[in-house]
């Protein structure tokens, strides 16, 4: 969804209500209706904890900002660990059209000029193609984490803005998961066709961690290395909706045949 016309949002809401009548799981809607019920990038609790550990490596009391946070699904999870984390969202109509109270921790502002304070970390989760506010983001922080949909999102890379990539990992996008859900639960097809399609499932969401200060980069790297050790010991620390990811073949450290590189899902690649 690039810009949310009121008509588009109303249509999406009606489709969601229809979907709920036949839905095979209460967790499917977050992948089939990502803007209304989830996020464009599919995440697990380990992603939340990775971001929290990056933020806390930079500051004991980090100023965390989520730019283009929508309804704040991911931001709310971050706030369980960083209660003062805030978001900005350009489009106020997403709240008033459905009479959804806008939480105080989401400010209606345009990222181009609305990031008022310097932040310890700015998260930009899946930006609409055509949007480019990298200058504004880069001016207000030393640490940026982005997620982008390979082949669809643009203007999400900060290498040309004085930042160096420190680490990256891959997860599915909402569309990757939605395709699997639709094939598995909502489309009649033979088992062999299902298996063939399953083999070509993709995972197109990339997470990039950037900093523009070598010392901070080193601190973040150490924090992530430690985090990975911890997350392997605590694999039952998870959200209920992660079962859908497992069922659809997007398991922690799963390798997908369709991907040219050797990178397993959620495996962190350190750069430099
Ligand atoms: C594709 S949605 C992603 C929402 C959420 N981050 C997620 O992953 O589900 C992009 C969001 O960014 C908002 N947005 C787009 N341009 C923006 C800008 N210049 N400043 C603030 N928010 C913006 C849109 O209104 C929309 O809610």
Descriptive notes:
- There is one protein chain.
- The protein has 272 residues and is of the alpha/beta class.
- It has a single domain, classed as Vaccinia Virus protein VP39 (Rossmann fold).
- Helices cover 38% and strands 15% of the residues.
- The chain has 11 helices and 8 strands.
- It has helices at 6-22, 29-32, 34-37, 45-58, 73-79, 93-96, 134-138, 174-185, 191-199, 214-233, 242-247, and strands at residues 64-67, 86-89, 106-108, 121-125, 143-149, 164-171, 205-211, 269-270.
- Helix 4 runs antiparallel to helix 10 (214-233).
- It is globular, with a radius of gyration of 18 Å.
- The two termini are 35 Å apart.
- It binds S-adenosylmethionine.
- S-adenosylmethionine binds next to helix 3 and strand 2.
- S-adenosylmethionine binds at residues 34-35, 39-41, 67-70, 88-91, 110-112, 125-128, 131, 133.
Short description:
With 272 residues, this protein is an alpha/beta fold. Helices cover 38% and strands 15% of the residues.
